Structure formats: structure tokens, C-alpha cells
Amino acid sequence: MRTLLSSLALAASLTLLSGPAMAGGGCGACCPVGGDKAAGDPARADTAMGGSHAEAAPAGYGLGYKTPDFTLSDTKGKEYSLSDYEGKIVALVFYNQDCPWVVEMWDRLGEFKEKYEDEGVVVLAVDPGVDKTPEALAEHAANRPYTILEDRSSLLALQFEATRTPEVFLHDRNGVVVYHGVFDTGPRGAEEGNRRAYTEEAVKALLEGGEIEVKETRAFGCTIKWNPETKAAWDREQQERAGEEAAASGS
After folding, report:
1. What is d(CA 91, CA 35) in angstroms, rounded to the nearest whole number?
2. Residues sharing a CB contact under 8 Å with residue 138, sequence separation 6 or more, in sequence order
3. What pairs with residue 121 in β-bridges?
């Protein structure tokens, strides 16, 4: 199970985040994952918990897990918690306004939000980077119909092991992630005349009480540029945990 970071090193690093944005790459390394997976073809299916098992899902991050509560602020400083949306379907989308893959889909994301919000579907876009000023993000957010939250520590993205923008984690009404991957098949699907909207398909299945056909696809888009302090602390903790597990297994 993916667990919360607990190292003192990480806690210390997060105290630095109240200052100006740290230097970091924007979408300079925008690149799709190769092969057919880049078109959003299913990477894995039928691996998520759901149905009558949803409430029994373990706490953690990712497909089949009930996401622990978290709180982030929007560009105006208003705080939002996942628990604010208890009983709703929440599409958590890791997002970078400068990523061409995000630019290509943001109108469709807005249409999706407006189409399903009256049925209890919420869109929370999360910017996990540190490469743009708060003013630039606020200007962009003012022109989008969905909520954009700042994860300037990159911690939430690291906990979910998200690596791309856009990357979707769809939560059912119990807070369990029941779909993970692309929002839809993007420009390649459009060029081929058969764009497939995996996130919307999953939402329709939830609303109709049916089974989600495809529960995981491989996300494609721009690589997330981590907050360097948080990423360093995260890597140290993972290495320490791996060492402890290796020592325990050898004892």
C-alpha cells in the first residue's frame, strides 16, 4: 500500500514552500509515452476494486485504494479538501496549463465538468509543479470552468505516483479510485476519427450502476517537474524503506 511520507527531512523541506516558486522546468520535456499506449490504449484492466467491495478498499493512493483526505488551496487561497466531496464522483486531474497535451484537452475537460456536475461529478485539476508564478496560474484559472488547485510541494502527485500531465484518478462516491489514466485518447484519437473518452465512460458506468469496462490506461503527456526538495526527501525515504525491508527479509 502506498503510504504517507513521514520523514523529518520531508517535513523540513515543506517549510520552504511558503516563499517564491522554486526554479524548475516547465513543459520543456513534454513528451508522450511511446507505442500504442500513448494513444490511451488499455494498459491494464479489471484491476480495481469496485461495487460491493468499494467501501472495504484499503487507504492509499492509486487504483483500488480509498484516497486519504488531503487539503490544497486554489489560486485565491481558498482551501479544498477531498472530504468536502463525500458522496460525489471526483475526477482528480494532474494538470499543467503550459503542457500542449493539456491545452489540447482543456476545453473537453470543461465540457465534461459542465455536462456531469448536476449528477454529482466534480473536477479538481491539480497543478503539481513549481515552474510558473502564482499570478500566471491565477490568470489561467480565472478562465477555466473547473477548480484548479496548487500542489507546489508536488507531494500529492508523488503519493499517487503520477508522472504525466494530464493524468486522471477517478474516485467513486466512496472515495475509491476506480479509473486511472488518460482523460481520453487525445489528438491521435481525433486524427483517426475514433477518440475514446475513457474517463467519461467510467463516469457513465458509475452513474448507471454498471461495471467500468476499462479501469486503467497508460497516461501520456508532459512529464511532471517535481519540487526538488520534496522529490529528494521522497527518494531518500523510499531508499531507506527499501533498505529496511531488505534487512528484515534477510534476518
Report:
1. 26
2. 75, 76
3. 89
Q: Which domains does the chain have, with CATH numbers?
A: 31-50+74-244 (3.40.30.10)
Q: Let me know: does 74 contact 153? Beta carbons within 8 Å.
A: no
Question: β-strand 89-94 against 121-127: which pairing, if any?
Answer: parallel
> Which amino acid is located at 15 in the chain?
T
Note down pLDDT in tens along the chain; length 251 residues: 444 443 433 443 443 333 333 333 344 444 443 333 334 444 433 333 344 444 589 999 999 999 999 999 999 999 999 999 999 999 999 999 999 999 999 999 999 999 999 999 999 999 997 777 888 999 999 999 999 999 999 999 999 999 999 999 999 999 999 999 999 998 765 655 678 999 999 999 999 999 999 999 999 999 998 899 999 999 999 999 999 988 888 75
Per-residue CA distances from 201 to 15, 158, 197 (Å): 41, 26, 6
Are 125 and 157 spatial neighbours (Cβ–Cβ below 8 Å)? no
pTM, entire model = 0.80
3 state SS for 152-178: CCCHHHHHHCCCEECEEEEECCCCEEE
Burial of 159 (0-12, 13-18, 19+ CB in 10 A): buried
CB neighbourhood size of 1 (10 A) = 9
